[in-house]
Amino acid sequence: MEDGPPTADAGTPGELLRLLRDGRPRTRAELAHETGLARSTVRARLDSLLDAGLVSDAGQGASTGGRPASRFVFNAMARVALAADVGATHATVAVADLTGVPLASETIDIDIADGPAVVLPRLVDGWRGLLYDGGLDHAGLAGAGIGLPGPVEHSTGRPNNPPIMPGWDGYDVPGQVSALLDVPVLVDNEVNLMALGEHTRCFPDADHMIVVKVATGIGSGFISNGRLHRGAVGAAGDLGHILAPRGGDQPCRCGNTGCLEAVASGPAIAATLRTHGLDAVTSADVVGLVRAGNLEAGRAVRQAGRDIGDVLAACISMFNPTLIVVGGSIAMAGEMLLAGVRESIYRRSLPLATENLRIVQSRAGSEAGVLGAAAMVVQHALSPAVLDNQLIG
Amino acid sequence: MEDGPPTADAGTPGELLRLLRDGRPRTRAELAHETGLARSTVRARLDSLLDAGLVSDAGQGASTGGRPASRFVFNAMARVALAADVGATHATVAVADLTGVPLASETIDIDIADGPAVVLPRLVDGWRGLLYDGGLDHAGLAGAGIGLPGPVEHSTGRPNNPPIMPGWDGYDVPGQVSALLDVPVLVDNEVNLMALGEHTRCFPDADHMIVVKVATGIGSGFISNGRLHRGAVGAAGDLGHILAPRGGDQPCRCGNTGCLEAVASGPAIAATLRTHGLDAVTSADVVGLVRAGNLEAGRAVRQAGRDIGDVLAACISMFNPTLIVVGGSIAMAGEMLLAGVRESIYRRSLPLATENLRIVQSRAGSEAGVLGAAAMVVQHALSPAVLDNQLIG
């Protein structure tokens, strides 16, 4: 219903490309007709897109009597997007085309606590390896997108008081990466990028959705009106530090008590299992026990699901989403977590808010973050504002 | 960062008007330059906007040697927007210009329980009276916007299981109103419209904000990335039925227990005050006692503020807004409510989420809803999709 931002430069190359990104080839005449732009404007804009390689001549369309007209089409291979999803102990790096589809990817071991001066060059090495192996050494690069396991001020690309990332607070991640690799660098919280990945590649029609990650920490990313909602300082989606009804005085690593993360994260579930004499420390231990059919572990994961559902019920009352996607390592344990989540949500929500709500397991799985990082790069590189600046200067 | 929707029809009259809505007069040549449109296209588009009265000839600009060129400007008085904010016991009706500024308004007594067949004609009578009194009988009407005190499916304009509106559930509000007055009719929840009103008229730069209404019920409206977030079925912002930490077994009119509304709404505060032997039933009674300096009443309102802050803290963790606006009749009691809200929010939120957060009293006050209703009509009527359909067919 609301207007979008004013499109003062409706006739720029970037706006023309936005049209062509649907993949349909068009003649110059068709483009002029579709946009109302002067033929001379269409010709000039197309020329700069052809020069940049972003549009290709797709051959001739049907003749209308005279010389057959050339048809032009978006060239998704014109440049390569670099993407990385960085966790505490490993990172996934990928190279993708301009539709955001990965061409190759690799998982590398890292230790986030080694700090950015060690970790970031490893990502760059990873990308260089993928480019070399894929024969893409000389491909133009659209940019690099990096997801980090903590709050990030998206506008500057600097981590903002990340709790598990010693040495990263306020660090100029884009500066460091672009010193090694001369490309635009975009940084975001990994859970935001999971949400962007699930949205763009798996659920493009879900305009209002929440993607929850349940692992060592608990976080979420939120799509509103089809766009990632990052919030004022990129701190949106912080599900893990909302007070859980069952949280009580349970101390949380954030310094507060009763946070959702303190009762329902992988380590919190493991702690519960240890009180039952089980040997569990990490999320992987918990998942292993559930998969082995351990009843206590199944119960504990289901209870964590209920706790998460209690907090999500509040989010559902506020957002009225159509879709909740649950991912992260604990979600890999199967239906137990989701069963608990659903139980609480349906108990605590008004019927209206849940009548069209789907609650599903992550579809992109462990790829969600890196798919989102690639989507972020493509959205940026092909946005009219950025592209026009490059092409017209 | 994300792309907006594709602007296939960059050269339509609606797109041209979007440019001119900034109020700056421009010549045809300036418009052609600014948009890249062919001069012939600009001329044709301007002609249809001039015919529709939406643009006026603002006289001649500086001569560039030849015949001085005419300058064209948006005409905000071309049509009138009708707006209504309907509460349980009264409604505010207004007429506004195409910038959304009210030209006249009036508050009329109604009883929402009389049902739509009685209430809606009263709104139409109110608008007709304002148009007549303002000499606007023959003005073109841009549309009518109506805020209702319950959930509304915005796409159809039908109330969706509203709890305090007998006879309204599923009622075709737009159909009934446009049978009386032949204009497009848009309907939304009144708290969504309060949020739109505060955003468009008082805080246009706050891209992420939550507007809370504390009165007989408790609700909120949420602006994400500068746009109203209505959610899947228009049920977003339902703060009142989120479980409050202090809610316990307190029964709520929704059928659940422990809801925020059951402990912090006007009637809930009044019930607390009655246990102290005070004579209070409505929000107005509570506000009266606070204003009279009653200590118990002040304490109870502050505690309600804390309860609301507890729930808002969860919303802040999820949204990371820059601004919380607190309105509604209980907010009129002064700083007590806000003091409690701030206390809980700062206790329960991560430092990152609150470092740039402002928490303020409503600025539009009781006008917020009707301002939002007018803004909704203007946004709709002047959106390129709607306007182009009218002008080009």
Write up this protein.
The structure is a homodimer of 393-residue chains. The radius of gyration of chain A is 23 Å and the shape is globular. In chain A, a hairpin with a 5-residue loop joins strand 5 (90-96) and strand 6. Chain A starts with 12 loop residues before the first helix and ends with a helix. Chain A contains 14 helices and 15 strands. The model of chain A is unreliable at 1-9 (pLDDT under 50). In chain A, the strands form four sheets. In chain A, strands 6-5-4-7-10 form a five-stranded mixed beta sheet, sandwiched between helices. A five-stranded mixed beta sheet of chain A has the order 13-12-11-14-15, sandwiched between helices. The first copy, chain A, has helices at residues 13-20, 28-35, 39-51, 116-133, 173-180, 190-202, 260-264, 266-275, 283-291, 295-319, 335-348, 351-354, 368-381, 384-392, and strands at 26-27, 55-60, 70-74, 79-86, 90-96, 102-109, 140-148, 152-153, 158-159, 185-189, 209-214, 218-224, 227-228, 323-327, 358-361. Chain A is α/β, with parallel strands linked by helices. Chain A has three domains: 13-74, Arc Repressor Mutant, subunit A (Orthogonal Bundle), CATH 1.10.10.10; 79-194 and 369-392, ATPase, nucleotide binding domain (Nucleotidyltransferase, domain 5), CATH 3.30.420; 204-362, ATPase, nucleotide binding domain (Nucleotidyltransferase, domain 5). The interface between A and B is large, with 81 and 81 residues.
Can you tell me the number of structural domains of chain A? Answer: 3
CATH class of the largest domain in chain A: Alpha Beta
Nearest-angstrom radius of gyration of chain A? 23 Å
Q: Which chains make the largest contact?
A: A-B, 81 and 81 residues
CATH topology of the largest domain in chain A: Nucleotidyltransferase, domain 5
- Characterize the biggest β-sheet of chain A: 5 strands, mixed
* Cα end-to-end separation of chain A: 33 Å
Strand content of chain A: 15-25%
The ordered H/E elements of chain A are HEHHEEEEEHEEEHEHEEEHHHHEHHEHH
Specify the CATH homologous superfamily of the largest domain in chain A. Answer: ATPase, nucleotide binding domain
- Helical segment tally of chain A? 14
What structural class do helix, strand and pairing data of chain A support?
Answer: alpha/beta
CA-based shape of chain A: globular
Q: What is the residue-averaged pLDDT of chain A?
A: 91
Task: Give me the CATH architecture of the largest domain in chain A, please.
Answer: 2-Layer Sandwich
In total, how many beta strands of chain A? Answer: 15
**What order do the strands of the largest sheet of chain A run in, or round the barrel if closed?**
6-5-4-7-10
Oligomer: homodimer
Give start-end ranges of low-pLDDT stretches of chain A.
1-9
